[in-house]
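Narrative of activities, Objective 1.

The group set out to show that a structural description can be obtained from nothing but a protein's sequence at a throughput compatible with the screening campaign. Below is one input-output pair from the validation batch, recorded exactly as produced.
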Amino acid sequence: MSVTDRPFDLVLFDLDGTLIDSAPQLALAVNRTLADLGLAEADESVVRTWVGNGADKLIQRALDYRDAPEQFAKARPLFDRHYQACLLEGLAMYDGVARGLRRLQGLGYQQAVVTNKPSHFVQPILEALGISDCFALWLGGNCVPVKKPSPEPLLHACHELGVSPSRTLMVGDSENDVLAAQAAGMKVVGLTYGYNYGRPIADSRPDWVCEQFAELDALLV
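Output recorded for this entry:
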């Protein structure tokens, strides 16, 4: 595909709920943290509704759920230790992700990961899954001063890779991704299978809604 044929030059991907289903590992780390604090665990189905705003918010939501917000300072480092220990345990990509990333790479698209997950967790995940070479850049939630839904992480990625927001597509699974992309002046795809606090991603009005990762082919290939 020639440069003039491509509808975009850069595709930004969220990580959790978009490329990988990290809820099992996050739930395990959250529950080990709660157990350390003498608090009752939470079902994975509940933890899934807490994912998307970064680790700080995840832990705040877990502690609020157990009426123990005052334990945040103790819980936060506990969570990091537990998540590091189980980070790659049963880790898996969603169907079609590896094939789709390779296809876009072969067509000459630049690709980047823009996630609210702390950056020191991102590289080990991408490397363990064998997809790190698909991305020209990956940004964790601590790489710029503000996280999604601020547009700043997306605009930072565009600046670093020398691509206009108007030639960039954001692909994500939550309202945070949609709001960030809209504020950055770029088009956005909302994936239905990820984490969006229990609400349909269509309610956030992305430009396109896809039920499977492979549906991106219709836009990009």
